[in-house]
Amino acid sequence: MFDTVPLAQVTRGSQLEVIYRGAIAVVNTHGELVASAGDPNLTTFLRSSAKPFQLLPLVESGGADRFGFSERELAVMAASHNGEEFHVEAVTGILQRLGLDVNALQCGTHAPAYAPAARALEDAGQQPNALHNNCSGKHSGMLAQCLGRKLPIESYLDPQHPIQITIKQTLAELAGIPPDSIELATDGCSVPTFAIPLTASARAFAQLADPSQWSEPRRSALHRVASAMMAYPEMVGGTQRLDTDVMRAGKGRVVVKGGAEGYYGMGILPLGLGVALKLEDGDAGRGRNAVVIEVLRQLGALDDDSLVALQRYAAGPFKNHRGLTVGQVQPCFDLTH
Amino acid sequence: MFDTVPLAQVTRGSQLEVIYRGAIAVVNTHGELVASAGDPNLTTFLRSSAKPFQLLPLVESGGADRFGFSERELAVMAASHNGEEFHVEAVTGILQRLGLDVNALQCGTHAPAYAPAARALEDAGQQPNALHNNCSGKHSGMLAQCLGRKLPIESYLDPQHPIQITIKQTLAELAGIPPDSIELATDGCSVPTFAIPLTASARAFAQLADPSQWSEPRRSALHRVASAMMAYPEMVGGTQRLDTDVMRAGKGRVVVKGGAEGYYGMGILPLGLGVALKLEDGDAGRGRNAVVIEVLRQLGALDDDSLVALQRYAAGPFKNHRGLTVGQVQPCFDLTH
Question: Which of A203, A256, A269, B235 would be a feasible disulfide site paired with B75, CB 3.0-4.6 Å?
Fold first, then answer.
């Protein structure tokens, strides 16, 4: 079982209606715990929060330069994108650069996550394909890793494929843990996914925020991945997405990547801190959003204007279908200790 | 805070990924606790699980007969419906019978809960109106209560309106608690909503399952509301809705009504039991569904064929976008003690 604490609650009138439990770890670049809520060593899957680290070996190995990938293209390789037209075009361009097409992607197919994009596809009488899968950018980046190292592409999902071994090794180094301690399972898009303690994950995110302890080429690669994500936040998520809007509001101060089932990772650049958090029930909406914004507020990671810009994600009162205020979402954790 | 326990968990590979916590109370018609998980006296809002009891005074007072409402119409008055065409038609018919129209409904407007119905409306270039609100049936039933008692309809949402006072009193009697102990707040559709202990709510559901301890007209009214819901389960929810599918599979053995934020109420007819449960995080999907089916299984409320028919809601393995089995949902509570 997870050792979690209430992170946010919903009240209606004066009565409690919902509790979101979870755990948070805030660490510095050396992996020292700076603040926490619940069990900071809670161990579970990063899911898509691993994407910046799954991309890193491509950049670190010089593959991004060899193929001439733009920052915008790197950003979509670290994305859980909405399947909007500009995402699909970017991934299509990456595959073309590699001499591949949609058939090389083994992520599977789902309709665009952004409802209007799914609707537009339907209206055009088109079926979604693997390009619309929110992970298609990551998969195109993995294919680039294969080609850059002259490795077979058919088996790139296999945990024993050299690129997957490199990715796992890279994550372990950034997280400061032995590779063998990483528990593997299969992600929604069929690649290996990693279960590690929140502290370890937060430590990896701290390296994105401040890569100065690393020698080259890792130092520049970490900087380049974080910069690409912050420069093109719409590529990392899309319209009305928390990741996108936090990085947009953060203006280069925060690099973030959400994962499925209530996971969230953040690097806070001015503070050189990494954050990993998990909502134990997998919430990725009202509860998760409020907790993420509250963490940023409590850490002083964002200025007041940025917080105002993110108000729709933050805790606060909510209204019913007639516009009456009927309750409120409240954070109930304190990182300042 | 709620005193809850893990009710269901999700594992990916061999690792825990999600926990759903909550509480369950199972009581007999006398309110005696038969089984529980977590705090059976957890107090929170019934939300839409109160609908059968919000309808009861109309039937009990003879209003349903006076207006000649059919079982099908009574079922939609106890519904959180999908806003499908047949729901909208039924509510329109009720209002016509009352000499009213959509403008009398004060529930507010939202798009049909069933996506294809919302889409069909959009394709027809029509805006959703209050008839599509999942609570429009309940509101039409409240309007009928006003007219049946020759009371003003404009103020029917007011907690001090005589019909709301009667509804609260009725719920208190069925739940075996003092009316003054019921905490009120405003529901999503603007009517008063009731916070009471799970045991009390379960006791009210037990009366739907077995009304024999009541004298007339309540006895027949309880029977009539439960029978209407079980006879026309598609009116109570709609296509691909847990409430509808459970009552359809139950073939007269169970009467159920879900509420927002992970609330669920059930009456088990052959056992004369009532159940109320709450997922503390408000989950109304994977977790809530698995818990509801597991409660029915553990209580022996449904036969094997019925459980097979409900398999899509039950705990079990799940697949990713490529059809690979990657994890499973498992119940983790035991009511048999």
Answer: B235
Q: How far is A17 from chain B (nearest CA, A)?
A: 6
Q: Choose, out of A2, A12, A119, A131, the residue to mutate when testing the contact with B (most B CBs < 10 Å).
A: A12
Quote ipTM for the complex: 0.96
Q: Is A162 exposed, middle or buried (0-12, 13-18, 19+ CB in 10 A)?
A: middle
CB-CB contact of B83 with B93 (8 Å): no
Residue of A189, A281, A287 lying closest to B19 (CB–CB): A281
What's the CA gap between A105 and A118, in Å, rounded? 20
* 3-state SS assignment for residue A7: strand
Nearest to A186 among B1, B44, B324 (CB): B324
Q: To the nearest whole angstrom, how far is the Cα of B213 from the nearest Cα of chain A? A: 32
Nearest chain B Cα distance for residue A306, angstroms: 28
Q: Do B190 and A320 touch (CB under 8 A)?
A: yes
For residue A265, the one-letter residue type is G
Q: Compute the distance between CA of residue A27 and CA of residue A20 in angstroms, rounded to an integer.
A: 22
Tell me the chain B residues in contact with residue A263 when contact means C-beta distances shorter than 8 Å. Answer: none
Q: What is the value of pTM for the model shown?
A: 0.97
